[in-house]
Amino acid sequence: MDTSSPYALIFACLLWAMMFDAGTCNFNNRCREKDTQVLLNFKTGIMDPSGILSSWSNQQNCCEWRGVTCDRINSRVTHLSLPCSTSIPNYMDKEDKSHCLTGTFSLSLLMELEFLSYLDLRNNDFLAIQFDSVHNHNYYYNLSVSNRPRQFLNSSTLRHLDLSFNENLVINSLQFLFRMSSLENLYISGVDLHMETNWLQLVTMLPSLSVLQMSYCQLKDLSPSLQHANFTALKILDLSGNKFHSELPKWLFNLSCGVSSVSIGLCSLTGQLPKELLNLRHLEELILLHNDLNGPIPDWIGELDHLQYLMLDENMFSGIIPKSLGNLSSLTHLSLGSNKFTGVVSERNFAKMSKLKSLDIQSSPPLIFDFDSHWIPPFQLEELWLSFSGPHLPAWLYTQRSIQSLSIYGSWFQAPDKFWNFVSRVPELTLEDNSIVGNLSNILLNSTVIRLSSNRLKGSLPRLSPNVAVVRLSNNSLSGSISPLLCDRKMLNWKSNLVYLDISLNHLSGGLTSCWEKWKSLIHVNLGSNNLTGKIPPSMGLLSNLTSLHLHENKLYGEIPPSLQNCHSLLIFNVRENNFTGNIPNWIPHAAKALQLRSNHFSGSIPAQICQMSSLFILDIADNTISGHIPTCLCNITALNNVSHREFSTTLLYNFSNRSLYFFEESLKLVTKGLALEYENNLQFMNLIDMSSNNLSGTIPLQMFSLFGLASLNLSHNKLTGKLPDEIGNMKNLESLDFSVNQFSGEIPEALSKLSFLGFLNLSFNSFTGKIPSGTQLQGFDAISYIGNSDLCGPPLTKICFKSSDDKSRDTKPIDENGDKSEFFSWFHTGLESGFVAGFLGVFCAILLNRKWREA
Ligand SMILES: *[C@@H]1O[C@H](CO)[C@@H](O)[C@H](O)[C@H]1NC(C)=O
Ligand SMILES: *[C@@H]1O[C@H](CO)[C@@H](O)[C@H](O)[C@H]1NC(C)=O
Ligand SMILES: *[C@@H]1O[C@H](CO)[C@@H](O)[C@H](O)[C@H]1NC(C)=O
Ligand SMILES: *[C@@H]1O[C@H](CO)[C@@H](O)[C@H](O)[C@H]1NC(C)=O
Ligand SMILES: *[C@@H]1O[C@H](CO)[C@@H](O)[C@H](O)[C@H]1NC(C)=O
Ligand SMILES: *[C@@H]1O[C@H](CO)[C@@H](O)[C@H](O)[C@H]1NC(C)=O
Ligand SMILES: *[C@@H]1O[C@H](CO)[C@@H](O)[C@H](O)[C@H]1NC(C)=O
Ligand SMILES: *[C@@H]1O[C@H](CO)[C@@H](O)[C@H](O)[C@H]1NC(C)=O
Ligand SMILES: *[C@@H]1O[C@H](CO)[C@@H](O)[C@H](O)[C@H]1NC(C)=O
Ligand SMILES: *[C@@H]1O[C@H](CO)[C@@H](O)[C@H](O)[C@H]1NC(C)=O
Ligand SMILES: *[C@@H]1O[C@H](CO)[C@@H](O)[C@H](O)[C@H]1NC(C)=O
Ligand SMILES: *[C@@H]1O[C@H](CO)[C@@H](O)[C@H](O)[C@H]1NC(C)=O
Fold first, then answer.
1. Does ligand 12 come within 6 angstroms of the Cβ of 611?
2. Which one-letter DSSP state was computed for residue 603?
3. Share of the chain above pLDDT 90, in %
4. What's the 538 CA to ligand 11 centre distance in angstroms?
5. pLDDT, tens digit, 9 for 90 and up, residues 325-337
6. How far apart are CA 141 and CA 135, in angstroms?
């Protein structure tokens, strides 16, 4: 699996949770009054913003209500199934659950449905569960049960309980499980159980428990030394995504031999595979991927002959891949990639695997392949992750006629025509970061997903068949114009399905063509870092679904055509480093997230329409000839004035026929802390305004200092005037502030020292006066941050302040200690260097932290 697999896994789970739809069965029998009352009370207690329960009313037979199923004979409620279905957004924004059920629900109330055997509230947004007899319900019902205090009844009927993926739900205690002695299936994944330290003991009390799914529950303790756990009926155990930091637990090997599936992936497990695993004779699935397990894959693994899934990828296993694996004739999925295996792989490792469908033996450095060139494998694979050393593909690859997904990584090989013919039958192709040598001129690509970035491909752009949805060909040596791909005459009669096109970082030249009409399905277009010239053709305005357009680092010129207004979905617009002229477009959709016009010849003033883009978090119009004032309305940009985490991301999702989710990070090159860096994974955490190197004049509007979310503000190299107000101290998230080379005056406000994250400050070459606030972190910056303000004094500047005795204020008269220019410039250069290093480290840490944050 590729490096995105942890996310892929999490989102595959979410996908599964989202795609599920409530099925309801109705019978023509009359619901009991008591059940009706219990359900109505349940409804009263919770919040139902979108009227999911609108059919629940006294007028109707409760057996016909949405989500309710009754027993045919006694007409009692047996099933309550109300999962929420949500759709997958284009960008990995926070899932929209505003229509799902929420609030607090009373489980003790539902337990009064004496015949309830199936309860499914999955993927809603419940915040808490009420278990006891607390009388804070603002409802009454006057049946016999109401006369005694409501208590949690022992349910002898509930067999299936699914509360999974209520992500905001915190359950402090699982004690209530005690009362559910018949429970067979417990699904509680994605619910926060970090307070429940006794979870294992509690679930083992359920004598009939057969399926336990507790993945991503923030569990911490796996009780690794506990010898015995009383799961007598357990068949399926899923504890993935909890950070246990321990070895595989002893109790696991002492489970009844009926266990068929064990899934403890992404759990930071340590240690080796213990031989006791052989106790689990009937194991069909062993999923331990993405842990820190080490040591060899033991020979005895070949004795687990019921195994169908063996997923050990992304661990630290070492040694050779044992031949005994070849004995696992039931195996359908074998995943060993991203470990530290060494040695040779040959046909003997797969001798009896006639059912194998999915194989991952990707590693870096690649394993040595020693396959007989005439070997015909006993399997027909559907998915293959491969890496190998050597100039030729293994011959047996061409015997595989059913491959749906092929991924090759870290390998070097020549791609002959035979190879391109072969892969045209493979719908998902991931061949990035290899050194594939090939010429794509006149090649027709036919895969749905084509990822070929960072190889050594040359020639002109390939042609695409109507099947193609995703094309990544970035960072190769492709040349010529973009018309072979876009203007292929053979495609005149069919409709394109292309949504994602990235051909950046090549040597493409010529114009943007007028062939865009054929490609209306496009969502993401990246033509950046080529040698393209000419104007943006009006036909690009036909791309009504376009969300991101990257045209940076080319030689494009002219005005941005008004037809682009028809790209109503545009969120990221990046034309950095071209030769565009005219005004800043004022039609950019209100939902836009990033606008990058840096280093062009845009002129005129900043249009007030920018303030309506409430989701904008990157506004980079630096290095143009923009004039006029900074608009006061910038404070209307809520994404910048909100301190809380943004609820949207810059990761584009592509859902491949409900089977695989692809993640594409948007990326932008931004300048912050004096450094230009490509922001990709961490882009969504950057809030930036860069208006530097323009002709802006006037003062900074006070409202701008209410952009509390801003991390980087650069207004340098303009003609701005006025004093800095104390309000600047409110911009608590600022990490980088550059006001250099303007005409700001007055004292540096002491409030500036309240900005505790500030790692880069440049106030140089203005007309600031007085003393740099002493005793604050502001003196921790190098002199470079303050030079060129002739009336500014005090450390770190070498000018000392002369405090006149009759002067009460900080107003001081600077004395130029030594006017030596050469010393001044040596300051300048040392300051510059250390600033760069610090800036780089800062960004690097931010990247690491964000990774952690996101994995958590
Ligand atoms: C139910 O009981 C409550 C309180 O005991 C009472 O106020 C209410 O009138 C009763 N409702 C009915 C319909 O009997
Ligand atoms: C439910 O069962 C528990 C333990 O089995 C017992 O202590 C409790 O009294 C029972 N409660 C009811 C209401 O029957
Ligand atoms: C299994 O549990 C029993 C106690 O019930 C214990 O004596 C035995 O050592 C355990 N076996 C393993 C392999 O942990
Ligand atoms: C294990 O379960 C059995 C049967 O339900 C029960 O008799 C026994 O007391 C349980 N043991 C523990 C340690 O919970
Ligand atoms: C495969 O299984 C057979 C019979 O069970 C055994 O004799 C042989 O040694 C096994 N092969 C390997 C490589 O473990
Ligand atoms: C192109 O892809 C389609 C669908 O995946 C497949 O049916 C067809 O055979 C492929 N064409 C070629 C020439 O491989
Ligand atoms: C481009 O590919 C080369 C190797 O072919 C790699 O070293 C480099 O990092 C890639 N650049 C980008 C921006 O992906
Ligand atoms: C690629 O192949 C075409 C013929 O298909 C040839 O004209 C062209 O010169 C080749 N390009 C390179 C860079 O080798
Ligand atoms: C644009 O997106 C919508 C929603 O995803 C889709 O229904 C529509 O077909 C797309 N338009 C084109 C031209 O592909
Ligand atoms: C870009 O195109 C110009 C002609 O338009 C050409 O002179 C130049 O060499 C090209 N540069 C690259 C890097 O291909
Ligand atoms: C950019 O456009 C200006 C005129 O608007 C022209 O003088 C200049 O040569 C162009 N620069 C490039 C790199 O094309
Ligand atoms: C900014 O917000 C204020 C108050 O919400 C509103 O009156 C004003 O019209 C907005 N300005 C712009 C340009 O959107």
1. yes
2. E
3. 62
4. 21
5. 999 999 999 999 9
6. 12
SS3 content of the chain, % helix, strand, coil (to 5): 20, 25, 55
Query: By the 8 A CB rule, do 185 and 156 touch?
Result: no
pLDDT digits (tens, 9 = 90+) for 614-643: 888 899 999 999 999 999 998 888 878 765
Contact present, 233 and 258 (Cβ < 8 Å): yes
- Residues 335-361 have pLDDT tens digits of 999 999 999 999 999 999 999 999 999
CA 202 to chain CA mean position, Å: 34
260 CB near ligand 6 (under 6 Å) = no
User: What order do you get walking across the sheet with 340-341 strand by strand?
Assistant: 294-295, 316-319, 340-341
Query: Which H or E run includes 104?
Result: strand 102-106
Contact 609, 586 (CB under 8 A): yes
Which residue CA neighbors atom 1 of ligand 2 most closely?
154
Distances 713 to 671, 737, 840 between C-alpha atoms, Å: 10, 5, 17
Q: What is the residue with the minimal CA distance to atom 9 of ligand 4?
A: 230
**pLDDT, mean of residues 235-242:** 96
Pocket around ligand 3 at a 6 A CB cut-off: 227-228, 250, 253-254, 276
3-state secondary structure 522-583: CCEEECCCCEEEECCCHHHHHCCCCCEEECCCCEEEECCCHHHHHCCCCCEEECCCCEEEEE
Nearest CA to ligand 11 atom 8: 579
Q: In the numeric block, which tokens belong to residue 110?
A: 């539902």
| Choice from 37, 41, 142 to test ligand 1 binding pocket (greatest atom count within 8 A of CB) | 142
Distances (CA, A) of 515 to 443, 489, 541, 542, 636: 20, 10, 11, 10, 38
Is the pLDDT reported for residue 11 higher than 80? no
Whether 448 and 427 have beta carbons less than 8 Å apart is answered as yes
CA separation for the pair 366, 354 (Å, rounded):
24
Distance from the alpha carbon of residue 389 to the mean position of ligand 6, in angstroms: 29
Q: Which atom of ligand 5 is nearest to the CA of 352?
A: 1
Strand partners, 170: 192
Q: Compute the distance between CA of residue 162 and CA of residue 156 in angstroms, rounded to an integer.
A: 17
Ligand 6 centroid–CA 424 distance in Å is 6
Q: How confident is the model at residue 818 (pLDDT cuts 50, 70, 90)?
A: very low
**CA–CA gap between residue 716 and residue 724 (Å, rounded):** 14
Taking the CB of residue 665, how many other CB atoms lie within 10 A of it?
16
CB within 6 Å of ligand 8 — which residues? 439, 441-442, 458-459
The residue contributing the CA closest to ligand 2 atom 8 is: 154
d(CA 533, CA 522): 21
* Angle value at C-alpha 702, between 698 and 707, nearest 5 degrees: 115
Model's pTM, two decimal places?
Answer: 0.82
Q: How far is residue 405's CA from residue 447's CA, in Å, rounded to a whole number? A: 10
Taking CB atoms and a 6 Å cutoff, what residues make up the pocket around ligand 1?
140, 142
- Residue 678 makes CB contacts below 8 A (sequence gap 6+) with 667, 668, 669
Provide the pLDDT for residue 806: 43
Ligand nearest to C-alpha 209: 4
CA 652 to centroid of ligand 7, rounded, Å: 21
CA distances from 605 to 205, 271, 620, 837 (A): 70, 63, 14, 35
Average pLDDT value for the chain? 85
Any idea which ligand is nearest the CA of 496?
Answer: 9
C-alpha 307 to ligand 7 mean position (Å): 40
Kindly give the distance from the C-alpha atom of residue 307 to the centroid of ligand 11, in angstroms, as a whole number.
Answer: 66
Task: Please report, to the nearest 10 degrees, the dihedral formed by the alpha carbons of residues 242, 246, 251, 254 taken in order.
Answer: 110
The CA distance from 288 to 265, in Å, is 4
Phi (first) and psi of residue 409, to 5 degrees: -140, 145
Among the listed residues 791, 781, 759, the one whose alpha carbon sits nearest the alpha carbon of residue 827: 781
